Amino acid sequence: MSQSSSQPSPTVTVVMAQIDPVVGDIAGNTQLVIESAKQAKLQHNADIVLFPEMTLTGYPPEDLLLRGGLYPQIDRALLQICQHVNDVVVVVGYPMQDALGERFNMAAWIEKGAIQASYMKQHLPNYSVFDEQRYFSAGHRPCVVEHKGVRFGVLICEDIWKFAPATQAKEAGADVLLTLNASPFSDEKHQDRLNTLTRRVAEINAPILYVNQVGGQDELVFDGGSFAMDAQGIVQVQSLEFKTALTAVKVVKSQHGVSVLPGLVAPLYESEARVYQALTLGIKDYVQKNGFPGVLLGLSGGIDSALTLALAVDALGANNVSAVMMPFKYTAQISQDDAALQAKTMGVDYQSIPIENLFNSFETALAPSFIGLENDVTEENLQARIRGTLLMALSNKTGKMVLATSNKSEVAVGYSTLYGDMVGGFSPLKDVPKTLVYRLAHYRNGLSNVIPERVIERAPSAELRPDQVDQDSLPDYAVLDAMIKAYVRQDKTPQQMIDMGFNAEEVNKVVRLIDRSEYKRRQAAPGVKITQRAFGKDRRYPITSRYTE
User: Fold this and answer.
1) Is-contact 160 177, C-beta < 8 A?
2) Which of 304, 496, 327 is nearest to 409 (CA)?
3) 509: which residues sit within 8 A by CB, 6+ positions away?
4) Helix, strand, coil shares of the chain as percentages rounded to 5?
5) How close are the terminal C-alpha atoms of the chain, in Å?
6) What SS3 state is found at 280?
7) Distance CA 175, CA 313 (A)
8) Could you give the CA distance from residue 298 to residue 507 in angstroms, rounded to a whole number?
9) What CA–CA distance (Å, rounded) separates 246 from 228?
């Protein structure tokens, strides 16, 4: 029977709980769910609180899922939620292991103190940074639950990227889909999500609520950006990016169907601003979740360390950041002046430790072994390794973590020194190409002028020998970054790159450098993934290999 126009339309308030869980902290994550549910009820009079994928363990828990002791803790966590939240529905993600030892990526519908329904994720991603087929078996059935006259279908992350699960839920009677996500950031990811959900709502003619995790987890950053899209493909509610948030969505059922009412539409970051937010959040959560009291870095007067310092201060506050200049005879005075100026401008602890005497001591000790041999890259690397040793000594003494400053362009072609400028516990620019480093520096100075303009304008140089600049031995960075994108991100062959217009000699050199530098990358610190293909779990190549194309 159709609803009379004189009767009020049932309205269900769903709160998207965009939270920042900590991997492995089941007790802490459980308490976060309970507190968030209570806050959502208090602030928004929520009927349903929707949490991200795998909330109780955090995502990705990786081989923690193989620990037998994990699952009794999950059972206790679910029981605790049931006991402490009974005036609002909680839809929460977690892992489950059955009596046969089979594991599933789950969502529980908790209502009136009990799990009333549950859903097993159907599509298990096994590409890029995802390894879910290593851990989980796939579910096969839809989950549709009615609440206040509205039938809600539940999906988990990758399910919404595929046609079948959404269609299956719709055929099972769902009026609206709730999807729990732990979708990591990359530079084009949010638009990809919007495009995908636009296709899904067109296929099923039903609204979709998409809640996403936020926060940093090792090399991954989750950007949040939860949203609600109506059946016409229009985003009616948009949550913040890179911030925790409880965002209310009003779902209304009438004789014309189910609709999402317009609500909060938070502005989204664009281009460099979005990447900058991802980097600062990645630094902040890595440092704080691992219990470091702060960070320190070598500040050289160059663009990479200048941007790293700005990111660190914005992420952690000036009081938690230290910078060290370690000049040598090849270090230009303007580099020393610019480093000191930036440190003063940003209000960080700063010191200068000259390395010439240390270098001379090493040369003296090595002289008998180097008789008859010309100076070469050995002496350049020695400078970098002395600096790395000093930074690690300061780290050991203070407890602060060293931030490495190498960018993706250097990491790709091996233009960074093992046990030298590669030392550190975290490498914020690891997935940031050199050309983007400059754009990010311009963006940050547009907020407030903290990086000396001379640092941005000067030709990049390692300053390890007289009059050295990076382009002595590398293509122009605009060309190099385009080559790296083609070879690493797009999997182009050298011949295809040449056909694209790149110089054949340069292509062969760059490809050779990328391939032979894999051993260095395996020893590098983790760093924030911001592109669609980062080095590390995103691109797994053998160190020992004779493969060519």
Assistant:
1) yes
2) 304
3) none
4) 40, 20, 40
5) 67
6) helix
7) 47
8) 32
9) 13
State the burial class of residue 155 (Cβ atoms within 10 Å of its Cβ: 0-12, 13-18, 19+). Answer: buried
For strands 89-97 and 48-50, give the pairing: parallel
Residue with tokens 């100075």: 445
Known catalytic membership, residue 157: yes
| Strand locations in 280-339 (E) | 295-298, 321-325
Options 111, 121, 253, 463, the catalytic residue: 121
479: its two tokens: 């060309």
Question: What integer pLDDT is reported at residue 4 of this predicted model?
Answer: 35
Q: Is 19 helix (H, G, I), strand (E, B) or coil?
A: coil
Looking at residue 167, its pLDDT comes to 95
Q: For residue 543, which amino acid is it?
A: I
List Cβ neighbours of 29 (8 Å cut-off, separation of 6 or more).
Answer: 21, 22, 55, 56, 57, 58, 77
Pairing outcome for strands 144-147 and 401-402: unpaired
pLDDT < 70 regions, the chain = 1-9, 460-472
Separation CA 422–CA 428 (nearest Å): 12
Q: Pull the structure tokens for residue 419.
A: 């046990």
Nearest to 23 by CA among 70, 67, 66, 58: 58
Q: Annotated catalytic, 82?
A: no
Exposure pattern of 48-60 as b/e (b: 16+ CB <10 Å)?
Answer: bbbbbbbbbbbbb
Decide: 110 and 85 in contact? Cβ < 8 Å: yes
The whole-angstrom separation of Cα 320 and Cα 332 is: 28
DSSP assignment of 100-142: TS-EEEEEEEEETTEEEEEEE------STT--HHHH-PPP---
pLDDT at 3: 37
Q: Tokens for 207?
A: 């609204």
What is the rounded radius of gyration, in angstroms, for the C-alpha atoms of the chain?
26
* Domains by residue range for the chain, with CATH: 11-268 (3.60.110.10), 273-474+517-522 (3.40.50.620)
CB 56 within 8 A of CB 93: yes
Q: What is the pLDDT of residues 213-251, one digit of tens each?
A: 999 999 999 999 999 999 999 999 999 999 999 999 999
Rounded CA gap, 527 and 431, in Å?
A: 7
- Which one-letter amino acid corresponds to residue 237? V
* 33: nearest Cα among 250, 180, 209: 180
CA dihedral 214, 216, 220, 225 (to 10 degrees): 20
> Looking at residue 543, what DSSP letter applies?
S
111, 132, 143, 157: the active-site residue: 157
Catalytic residue among 53, 111, 410, 463: 53
